[in-house]
Structure formats: C-alpha cells, structure tokens
Design brief:
homodimer; alpha/beta; UDP-N-acetylmuramoyl-L-alanine:D-glutamate ligase; 9-stranded mixed sheet; about 25% strand
Chain lengths: ~300, ~300
C-alpha cells in the first residue's frame, strides 16, 4: 500500500570523535524514505533550496521514492544543521541551525499523494503536520513523530495534532516530558489519553516499545559496536517500521512486532555510516539476513 | 543440579518517594537464593549476628534453601544498609552502611556444599569469593557478581578472581568502568579478555545481555509500572538466571536465553514489593504465566 511522508530535508555538518563530514544529505524525510523504501514504494514531501543537487533527486528515484512532492524554492537555500557528538556517541550538541526555506514550509501535496493510505508526519512543526493532514482524504493510518522542541514551543498545535493522528513516535525522554511521568511505560500509556491510539517509544541503544490500550511490545536495539554516525537513527527506525506496516497493510500483533524489528534493523545499519552512506550498500536481502541473526539473539 | 551461593545478608532500611521500611531482610544472598529457589534447591553461605531472628532461617528452609552454611556470630550484629531512592526510582543514595559481622566474613563451606556443581559468588569482596573457591572442588560453572566498589578499591583481587570464574554478572556502568569502554557491547566483549568465558550485563529497566566469544543474547526488561522497591533486583535477576541454568544443567543457546528471561521475570516480581515481600506471594506457576505474557510481548 502507499506510504507518504512529510518531513524536513537538510544539509548536515556532523562531527564525531572520529571524523567530520560537511553538508551531507540529511533531515527526517530522506532518512525515513530511504529506510522505508526497502519495503515498498514511498512518496516524499519536503522543501529544499536552489542549492539542491539534481543527483539527489535521481538517487531517490532509483530507490523507488516518488519525489514529485519535492518543492524547490527558487533563490532559496536548503535547511542546514550542524552538530557534534560527544565521546559516548549518544549525546550531541547542536552547533548551528539555519532554517532557510524550511522556516516557511507549507506542504503542498500532489493530487495523487492525497489518497495515500499510510501517512507519516516526520519530525517538524505540528502546524506543518496539520497543514498536510488538511490535504489528505481518508488515510488508513496516520503516524507522527515529535520532539522536545515542539513540546516546549508549540504545545497547543501539538495537542490539536495528537487528536488527529493514530500513532505517535517519540523518544523516551520526550514521552516523559510530554506527560510529566517518570516511568517510560506510564508515560507511553498516558499519551494514549491525549489522542493517539498507539505510541512507539524510541530508546536508542536500549530499543523500543509499542503501547496501545490492550497491547505492549518490546524490542531491544540491534547490538552495534561500530557506531559511525547516530544521526537519523530515529527517523530510520520510523521508516523501517512504517515501510513494513504499509507493505503488510494491517496492524496485527505479529505485524507490529516485526515492524519494530525491521525499524530496529534499518536503524542499526544507518548508524554504521555517515548520513545515508550505509543504505547505499544494502538491500532487503541483507536486512533479512540480519533478521535471522537478530531472532537468534533476542527471540525466545 | 546443586546451586550454591555465597553472599551478603543484611537488614536494610529503605526509603522510597512513597514509603519507608526499617530493618527488613536483604543482602545479595537472600535475594539470590529466594529467586533461584523457584527453579530448584539452593545452598546458601553467609554470615549474620546474634540479632538474626530464627523465623528467617525457617522461611528459607520452607523454600527449599539449605541454610547449613549460615554462620551466626555470637555477640555479633548483622550487616546493615540504609538507602533512599529518588523520584525516578532508579537512582539512590546510600545513607548508612554498617558492615558489622560482614567486615570479617570468612566463608566456611559445609562439607556437602564443597561438591556443588553450580556456584554463584554474589556481590561481595573479591577476597571473599576467592576464599570460597579455595574450598570448592571441580564445580561445573562458577559465576560471580561484582560492583563499582570492588573495581575501585580491590582491583588486584578482582583481577585474580576474574581468571578463576566462568562467568561475570555486572551492571552496564560497571562494565564500562572495568574496561574503560564507552559502548556496552564493546565493554562486555573486552571483559572476556580478563578471564571469564561469558559476561552478563544488567541494564536495569533496559534489560540484559549475554556475551561470550561466539554468542550474543539480548532480553528487554519486563515492563513494570508499579515499582515499589528496586532493591535486590540485580541479585534476583542473577538468582533466576542461575536457578534456571542449574535446573537444566547445560549452557546451550536456548537455555541461556531462557535463563535471562527467567532472571528478568523474577526481578520484575521482586521490585513490585519491599524486600522479599512479593516473592512470598508467588510460585513457579505464576512465573510461567508471566513467561507466556512476556513471550507475546517480546518474542518475534
């Protein structure tokens, strides 16, 4: 089934204790779409500036990603983010943020995108998500990501958005911040009172969990020693998860667990290289080989 | 097969954000033995003072725990520990420690205990563990727990002990401290160079992992919202794990994973009550009912 994502597109400058890369392709939409594309076709909506290299458009097309929702602003400059990871490769400091064309992003969905059955509102201003939803008719499943920034500065818009989505994806610290709860499970359950029918909590190296009124699923992270660049792991996790759900077209218990597992596996590949580098070396078969390995490690 | 544990026995005073209990039975050996006793017989070695109530000895006996290795020091006072948990129920501050008879503990193993096939050296001074091992002939499996204190103040003894054991159980922060590694998986693997053939890393609410030269297993924690008292969770985890391994008598892949799962489940029960309270309400059947539930949540 069709999977649509609306999200940010960025040129990232990333410094880790080992290396530094400047102006590499990043942002929630590219990570999400690339991760999801291993499981089926994806439609991407986002905005970039005149500095956007045509080769990136080609790269997405070759991966089965429909980029007809990519808006290129004449004279504009693409969103830029710069960050530096600390020794533990988990904590990072943002060094610079230049919103550029993302600051005035008004998603405009091509006609065919408006009938998407599975929709993901990748991390972005809640008002952007709401503007996108206004254009979508009768999706089977709408899932959104959010982050601390929007909980802090756009809580009212976020509360409206929460009532219009089926699922919310966020970090454990953000789930606690959103609810005031100190226990992750309690926080996830409390979010169900704010609107979503299910919540997926990303715990980084500690895995993820899915909570709905009657269900609770837990998956550990894939054990990765060689973390090269953690940027985009959360968006990749969501991409793998939503890509698999869209490919199955249901939310049955086994589908959800396997979607969490696939999200975990693609995120595990993602962090093994800078930006989208590692994705260019793998395919669905390689992901499935790791699934066999992961099942041996973590299924009982 | 026979499982022997040498560890501390304490009277704990515990304060949580909700309640406070004074002088309740605690220490690594009671938590470990009680948790292990759901899977088979356990032999316990430890030291207490003249203030030891006979009813505790009875309680252990009724649970199938052989307490003939319990030394009661005439005129002595049992080890006392006092701690206060913070709001998040994970971090705690030690308010008071009175070693008392534990300060001069020289484990003396009854003759029959010396032929134990499975041995666990619960958290204690590495020299105590070494003294116990001197008395044990040809055990099939020796596993030890350790903690930051011994890494800091008894590193030489600990290094000797590490070369005489088959497996080490410790927290993730302790694994990192012991090796200087920042990644949990890398830290666990590096410990294999110090002597043990396998390492089990306890990650509290984030689960646990087992690492040997060719194996890696990961199990999430059982999702518990109602944490009443986290004291003893790590010792209970080790007890459930070792109890199940001793009941199976092998270290095959499926045994190890299920041992991690059983350790997880008994630790999950443990934290639902103060001290050993919750254990008195459950049995193996109840643990197995939760296993069915846990498999539905986390096995894929």
């Amino acid at each position: 089934m069709t999977l649509l994502v609306i999200g940010s597109i960025a040129f990232d400058t990333i410094e880790t204790p080992i290396a530094k890369r400047e102006n590499i392709l990043g942002g929630s939409a590219p990570y999400f779409t690339y991760a999801a594309s291993f499981f089926g076709p994806v439609q991407m909506v986002g905005v970039v500036g005149e500095d956007w290299p045509e080769e990136y458009t080609e790269m997405f097309r070759k991966q089965g990603i429909d980029v007809s929702g990519l808006e290129i602003v004449p004279g504009g400059k693409t969103f830029r983010w710069s960050g530096k990871y600390r020794e533990n490769m988990n904590d990072r400091d943002t060094l610079d943020t230049q919103l550029n064309v993302l600051g005035h992003f008004q998603p405009k969905l091509p006609e065919i995108f408006r009938r998407a059955q599975f929709v993901f509102l990748a991390n972005g201003a809640p008002s952007t998500g709401l503007a996108a939803l206004e254009q979508i008719q009768g999706a089977d499943l709408v899932v959104a990501d959010t982050m601390d920034l929007w909980i802090n500065i756009a809580r009212n818009d976020l509360d409206v958005l929460l009532k219009r989505i089926d699922g919310l994806v966020l970090n454990d610290s953000e789930a606690k911040m959103l609810t005031g709860e100190l226990n992750t499970i309690s926080a996830a359950k409390k979010i169900l009172n704010l609107g979503p029918k299910f919540v997926v909590v990303k715990k980084g190296e500690h895995g993820s969990l899915f909570v709905s009124e009657y269900e609770l699923y837990l998956i550990p992270a894939f054990p990765t020693e060689n973390v090269v660049d953690p940027t985009g792991a959360g968006d990749s996790f969501a991409g793998g998860m939503m890509g698999y759900i869209a490919s199955q077209g249901n939310l049955e218990s086994e589908t959800i667990k396997k979607a969490l597992v696939y999200g975990t596996l693609v995120a595990g590949f993602c962090v093994e290289g800078f930006g989208l580098d590692r994705y260019k070396e793998i395919n669905r078969e390689e992901i499935d080989r790791r699934l066999v390995l992961f099942r041996k490690m973590a299924s009982f």
